[in-house]
Amino acid sequence: MRLHRLEVAAFGPYRHREVVDFDALGADGLFLLHGDTGAGKTTLLDAVAFALFGSVPGARGEVKRLRCDLAGADEPTEVVLELTVQGQRMRLVRSPEYQRPKRRGDGTTSQPAKASLTWLGGTPAGQPTEGLIRIDEVGRTVERLLGMNAAQFFQVVLLPQGEFARFLRADTAERERLLEKLFGTKRFADVEAWFRDLRTERRRRLDQRRQEVRSLLDRFAQAAREEVPEEEVTSWIAGTRERAGKAVEAAKAEHAQAFSARETAEKILEDRRVAAERVQRVRAARRRLADLAAQEGERERLAEEVAAARRAATVTGVAAQAARSAELLRNARAEEEARVGELAATGYPATGSDIAELRRYAGKLREEAGALAGLVTEAERQRHDEREIVRLAEAVEEARATAEVLSEKLAGIPEQARDLRERLDAAAEAEVVLEASRQRHAELTAAARDAAGLPAAERRVTEATGKAQAATEEHLRAREHRLRIRELRLEGMAAELATGLRDGSPCPVCGSGEHPAPADPSDGSVDPEQERAAEEAERRAEHRREVAEATKHEAQTALTALRERLRGRSRDEVDAELEELTTRLTELTGLARQKASLEARLRATEAEAAGLAEQRESAGQAATAAETRRAALADQVAERARRLDDARGEHADVGARREHLARVVRALDALAEARVATESARERSEHHEAVVREALGQAGFATVGEMHAAVRDERTVAELDRRLAEAAAAEAAASETLAEPELAGVSPDEEVDVEAAAAAAGLARERAEAAVAALREAGSRAEDLDSLAKRVEAANTALRPFEEAFAELDALTDVVNGRGQNARRMSLRSYVLAARLEEVAVAATARLRAMSQGRYSFVHSDAAGSHGTRGGLGLDVLDDYSGTIRPAKTLSGGESFLASLALALGLADVVAGETGGALLDTLFVDEGFGTLDAETLDVVMNILDELRAGGRVVCLVSHVEELRQRIPTRLRVRKSRTGSTLEVVA
């Protein structure tokens, strides 16, 4: 990174625009920024930091007062920085958020923060040619190009007041975060995570395979109906299979004997059942013949009843027709009486009129009603025209009233148009400032979410820290337990070896075939299974500790990011600022949203004025036309009314008279039809009565009542026929049964013992069925055991390579992640960072020894931390005067300045070497020289001269008088009541 030009306006103590040309000042590689205390030297460094990151270092960044107190209301606060990073030249322009007086009315309003990035000399690939204007996009782009965030930049490139020794005295975690960002070791962290994920996945697969073996053994034990032994599983499986085979052979022998006995018992049962069935048939046939002989009289009566019902069926049809004809005659006479009453109600008595007379009078009245049809149409037209006259009168009044209303509206339109123009101007002004307010509102909304989530993030860190501590303690207890178990097993190893000794076999320790005094197990002896259980418990505890530490690290990282985004603001401050801006944004949005509608309303108002004038003229013309039409229509209505009065007679109107005539005609026609129907019904009834008398005589019945008494429905007749036929068939069947040859000589009194034979056959069947089930069960169990034994053997064979491969991967993963056989507890990432820090220590030592005249050197330590924590990033100081290694915190103020400056320069050298020398070309040192004596100051200046010779630009910020004599190029800050100014002194 190399700076070219800096401009500040209304920033800090600088009221007017001040320009710093770094290219001219840094031509010699070294220049001094000096001035009175409080003049604004550090403010220039703050301006560089603000242009890059939108924040300033140290406690000044917490106050958030960057605007010059002397600046006028129309003087904007702005910082412009031109620089080159990674070969890309750019211009950064930033303005902080500040309060300014309102342009209208009293009070102040918030001026939102702004940022822009413009590419100079070519746009990088993937970037918009017009540059960037979003604050978050500008910040991300600058941080990506620099490879550092604001805090890291302040520690490595810009060394402000109070921040000299922060990296020197940082703890391992903080130092690790900075080095990771600078040296890009994320790929090594990814390797560690890859190993952990791979181990987790392989462990899951191994557990699945082990579970498969356990499941197969459980299924084998379930099939064998035994428990899986703790040891000698293979021998147990072979013995179980052998026992299952013997059980199958025994079941086969029992199966053959049971089936032979069942066949004999079933043959005896069948013979006895046949004999018993013949005796039963003879008994049933003789009982049936006796019952039928007793029912002979009833059967004759049923036959007579069936014959009478069939004769009555020939008469029921004509009798029903005669009854229906009589009913129709009664209905026709009642209908005729009703029609006579209807005609009398019309005023025409027709009691003695015949059918012809009724039809002649109806024709006469029909012709009279037809003549009135045209007048009915005219009556309807008359009513329509009368309503039209009323409507035209109302239209005349409405048109005249409309003309008056339009005149009143036209009088108020000019004032309305002036009001709309004023509101339109205010909406246009709101639209201009709305976008900047929205951008600021989005930033404050995000900050409010961060502030709201801060307590929860702090709780998560606290909870994660407690869980990590508990998991670590649990892991330590599990490790101690495992070591104790191993120690106990080693103590009892002699007894364990003695359990495997056999007479005549050699001792695995001494080789002797005689074992006169083998060791006995003690009460506290431990077997291998207990040791494996302790090791497994330790691995589980270690895994829980790793998970808890990862969770803690994630929670701390999230909390740090949250606090950096909040930049020290509290939730109340953010909420108050957001509430004020939200209110203002609502006002602006409401005004801006009205612009289009106000423009449309203004155009509509102007168009309305022209339209209202045209409508008023149209309303006057409509009133005149309606009045003319009303007068003409009134004359036509009076003429038509005279004709209709003559035609209606004594009725209310012509339509009522025509309706009355139509009602009389309908009554006459209905009465004539009713008399015709009555005559026809009488003739049909007389004919059907004669037919019924003749049918009764032919069927042998004297009266219709006698005939109805003999009537039976078809179902009853069919049921009687069936009963008679069944009795005859049963008699014939019983006779045929007794005549069968096989029943000859069978006595109905004979007794056959079937139950005893059935009981014996049932017992034989049960024995055979039990034998079949036993044989099937034994065979199925033997097959299942053979199949499962083969699967267990195959699963064990396939499991062994997986266990060996996982053991190797597990050990390697522990080493890569700083555990297991890794004695220094250093992960791969820590190992790489330790190597980089060692390079930094070597580079910084060269300068520190020169500055301290050979007394101090940096010492890098890769030892593990206390309580088993990770190591590798320790940094202490070797004091050659005493020969002891001292913590950096024990150095004096001047010594701390020298050490931190040497460390910053060494860090810059290593980072520059990593990035090809294109990153840290500019270094700022703010104060600290006043703590050095004259001799040490000479040494430091020589070191800075070496930096200048290497192509860097070093800016010293100090008010030490001696530096003014040593450095010819100086930038002086002058302080005054009207604001500080800059002056270049060559």
Highlighted features:
22 helices, Rad50/SbcC_AAA, alpha/beta, flat, P-loop_NTPase, 5-stranded antiparallel β-sheet, 986 residues, single chain, Rossmann fold
Can you tell me about this structure?
The protein is an alpha/beta fold and 986 residues long. Among the domains are: 1-147 and 924-986, 3-Layer(aba) Sandwich (Rossmann fold); 305-352 and 659-706; 373-506 and 518-613, no CATH class. It contains 22 helices and 16 strands. It has helices spanning 22-25, 41-53, 60-63, 135-146, 150-156, 172-183, 186-224, 233-294, 296-345, 355-371, 373-491, 493-498, 528-566, 571-648, 654-699, 704-710, 714-738, 754-816, 828-851, 893-914, 934-949, 961-966; strands spanning 2-9, 18-21, 30-35, 78-85, 88-95, 98-101, 108-111, 114-120, 158-159, 856-861, 874-879, 884-886, 922-926, 953-957, 970-974, 981-985. The strands form four sheets. The protein has a six-stranded mixed β-sheet. A five-stranded antiparallel β-sheet has the order 2-1-4-5-8. The longest helix is centred in the middle third of the chain and has 119 residues, at 373-491.
